[in-house]
Amino acid sequence: MLRCCVFLAALILAGFTTFEAQADRRVALVIGNSEYREIPALKNPDKDAEDVSKTFRLAGFEVFAAKDLTRLQFEEQFRNYLAAADGADLAVVYYSGHGFQIGGENFLIPVDASLKDAADMEVQAIKVDDILQQLRSKSKIQMIILDACRNNPFPRKDYWLRDQLIVAGGTGLAQVSGSQNTLIAFATEPGAVAYDGSGDLSPFSSSFSRRALAPNQEIRSVMAAVRRDVVKATNGKQVPWENSSLIDDVVLMREAEPPALPPADAQQSQQTAERGIQAAAAAEAIGNRDIGVPVGVGPVPLKLDFPAKDASISMKLASYPATGTLSLPDRVLPPQSNLMAAEVDNLRYEPQVGSAAPVEVGLQIRVGNVSKQATVKLSPNVDPCDQAAGEPLDLQGIASGKLPSEIGSEAVESCGAAVKAYPDIARFRYELGRALLASGRIDEARQAIQDAADKGHVRAVYELGYIAASGIGAAPDITKANSFYAQASDKGDPYAMTAWGRALFDGVGVQRDTGKGLDLLLKAAAMGHVGAMNDLALIFKQGRNGVPADPARALAFLKAGIDRQEAYSMAILGLSPKQNTPTLAVCKPKVVTKVITKVKIIRTPPPEAPPPTITTPKDPIGPVPWRGSSGDHDHPQSRGDNSDG
Questions:
Q1: What pLDDT was estimated at residue 279?
Q2: What are the backbone angles phi and psi of residue 530, rounded to the nearest 5°?
Q3: Whether the predicted pLDDT of 39 surpasses 80
Q4: Euclidean distance between CA atoms 82 and 134, whole angstroms
Q5: What's the CATH number where 317 sits?
Q6: How far apart are alpha carbons 73 and 54 in whole angstroms?
Q7: Among 80-89, 166-175, 298-307, 389-398, where is mean pLDDT lowest?
Q8: How far is CA 412 from the centre of its chain?
């Protein structure tokens, strides 16, 4: 069958970083979706993704690898990846699976998507432009590779996008434009299909994986070589295409310098036994160790205290950690790297955000022709401050997060210690501010949050807006709050998108802009913010500010909130989840089915009554189980304005 492969690479030199990027920090998210539940499985994506993942690891990238992701799993993986990509030199997303266009917008399709109803595209699919915007706000240079099926295998052909019902495109993905210093490339012309090929890999992915590893090749030269390969492999039926506005060179694979050779030794044969003892002693000294490594603070020195400094001794990375990256201060180390004895004590490891499992690194210590193996265990750990005062859905956070009412008294001490230990990590200053705010120490909290914002923590900027809007320690100032919300929204924060979107949609403290407000709420919902989902549900249920009522569309967003265990999505539907219940019964598939059946009465116009008003609960229903909850504050700017938000 025809294989829909598309390659979209965006390389954009500009962006907001939270701290000075480490040299050559390059991060890749690689996803292969093959096992679709509602449509036939695809042959190549898992193999393509596996091959490309190896390619990026060999090129020295930190690689987040996943396959067969549902919508919720994609949200979680993408948030972990964004936290790692914050401040990176190069951020890459590779996706293989179903994808198609609607109204000039390209979408990626998770494996659990059904796309049966007109509202399903917004709550089940992933918009490529949203991915690009997030990467632009995080990293200096971005690349997105989409090896996505072009045909639309779903039964429905029209879907809601913003305020219009749009007919899906027939074939291919839409052309995507980028800003300065951007390369956008397709496996074939926009709107055309590409081929699966006869092997395990698609012609384009196979060529890209091979050509990308050519040492010191600039990306435009790589793409030219890929184009030649694909044209030849398909007898001219498929011609990769790209649009470039690059002003800087981008090299994926830098040629490694050959390791220094030990000096010649005329008496080496007589010294074999001595060197064997030396190698064994060095292996024993650093092997069988378990080193704790904090997550989210950058590369951490391993301090192996390698006992041998002889220039004749070298080390090879015989096995690489399954996640995270090893590096030296001047370079990232890909698998099979060689180090000299003097470099070993500078070896560093950066754990992968979201992965708590211990990993191992195998070291081969060589002295002349003698070698010995050593294994070091690396155990990632989350700082007590992140555990005590991290916030849900913080795209620069590394923990599942807590609501303010869940922050204990120990958080102030834990976060104070973290700020002292890592003064350059803005996240800890923000979390200290949250802990102080929960303890009622308003002035200290405001200063800590301001410090975090000054250091580039985006959620802290939103928090300053919340403080201004709520009048904590001062008179409420909605105009000032909106200014903070707009700043944080521009940097991709879903809390801020929701708050700023509400203000714009209803004209609260700002001139009304319904279209932009609706778009921001949709973007926040796409990032997993259930407060935005609830707002959208009420907008579509009632029909407001020129947006037509559509009960089915409202129901789609409420169902999305329920999928994320959101209490107020359930409340809108008239449900009453019990407190202190570990797993909400309504979230079990069997119960959800019954709920949906009951709420179909939403299609019948209800008796006239004042519209319901959503408020964020003061006492949340159980702990937040994952980084994807709604906002953790009320939103004062929307109270009393009949916005229902």
A1: 72
A2: -75, -20
A3: yes
A4: 8
A5: 2.60.40.10
A6: 22
A7: 166-175
A8: 28
| pLDDT over threshold 50, residue 214 | yes
Query: Do 57 and 320 contact (CB within 8 A), yes or no?
Result: yes
Is residue 343 domain-shared with residue 431, that is, in the same domain? no
**Using CA atoms, how far apart are residues 486 and 499, in angstroms rounded to an integer?**
9
- Burial pattern 402-428, b for ≥16 Cβ within 10 A else e, equals bbeebbeeebbebbbebbeebeebbbb
Inform me whether the pLDDT recorded for 422 exceeds 70.
yes
Residue 637 lies in a domain: no
Q: For residue 58, what pLDDT is reported? A: 92
Who contacts 116 (Cβ-Cβ below 8 Å, separation ≥6)?
A: 154, 155, 156
* DSSP-derived secondary structure letter, 218: B
Domain assignment present for residue 625? The answer is no
Domain count, the chain: 3
Does 543 reside within a domain?
yes
CB 493 within 8 A of CB 636: no
Strand boundaries in 38-179, DSSP class E: 62-67, 90-102, 105-108, 126-127, 141-149, 158-161, 164-167
Instruction: Average the pLDDT over 95-114 and give the result.
Output: 87
In a shared domain, residues 55 and 157: yes
Whether residues 372 and 460 share a domain: the answer is no
Ramachandran class of 574: left when φ > 0, alpha when ψ lies in -120 to 50, beta otherwise: left
Question: What is the DSSP-derived secondary structure letter of residue 174?
Answer: P
Burial, 575: exposed, middle or buried (Cβ in 10 Å; 0-12, 13-18, 19+)? middle
Does residue 495 fall inside a structural domain? yes
pTM over 0.85: no
* Domain interval for residue 150: 26-245
Amino acid 401 reads G
**Residues with Cβ within 8 Å of residue 521, at least 6 apart in sequence:** 497, 498, 501, 502, 505, 532, 535, 536, 539
**53 and 198 assigned to the same domain:** yes
Q: How many residues does the chain have?
A: 645
- For the chain, the straight-line distance linking the first and the last C-alpha, in angstroms and rounded, comes to 48
